[in-house]
Amino acid sequence: MLTLTHRLSADVAIAVDLTLALTAEERARSRYQLATEAGQSVRLQLPRGTVLHHGDLLQAETGDVLVRIAAKPEPVLTVKAQTSLELLRAAYHLGNRHVALEITADYLRLSPDPVLQSMLEHLGLQVSAEIAAFQPEVGAYGHSGPSHAH
């Protein structure tokens, strides 16, 4: 079994042996066992609290295998608004509910939830169900290893 124990700088342009597509929930787990699409068993054994991001590089404990992490497309709700103030208001209401949220200048993205979808539509926002990569914010006190510019 391939055990991934070290996170490397994602800024390095390097050839990788394998790409692992993981959902947002899977990228937030530091200890996890999964199988690749080819059926190879892989174990994440990273420092507790590690949150992986699209493009991150992991190295096997043996040092001979490099793996790139990819954000796996998954069901999400994408929220858009006519104005930035409406989008900020939506982020405020979702934050009050401690919802994992991807925040950009043009849209918000969250895991599907019919109650939250109804609330957002009631606020006059455009909500669409999609299959897309989901990269929620880590949080103000979260630690995700090497710093990432977002």
UniProtKB/TrEMBL annotation:
Subcellular location: Cytoplasm
InterPro entries for this protein: UreE, UreE_C_dom, UreE_N, UreE_N_sf
Residue ranges annotated for the UreE urease accessory N-terminal domain, each copy included: 1-67
Pfam families: UreE_C (PF05194), UreE_N (PF02814)
Keyword annotations from UniProtKB, A to Z: Chaperone, Cytoplasm, Nickel
Keyword Chaperone: yes
Cell wall biogenesis/degradation keyword on record: no
Coiled-coil region(s): none
Function: Involved in urease metallocenter assembly. Binds nickel. Probably functions as a nickel donor during metallocenter assembly.
Matching NCBIfam families: PRK13261.1-1
Family (UniProt): Belongs to the UreE family.
Name by which UniProt lists this protein: Urease accessory protein UreE
Protein's organism: Trichocoleus desertorum GB2-A4
Lineage: Bacteria, Bacillati, Cyanobacteriota, Cyanophyceae, Leptolyngbyales
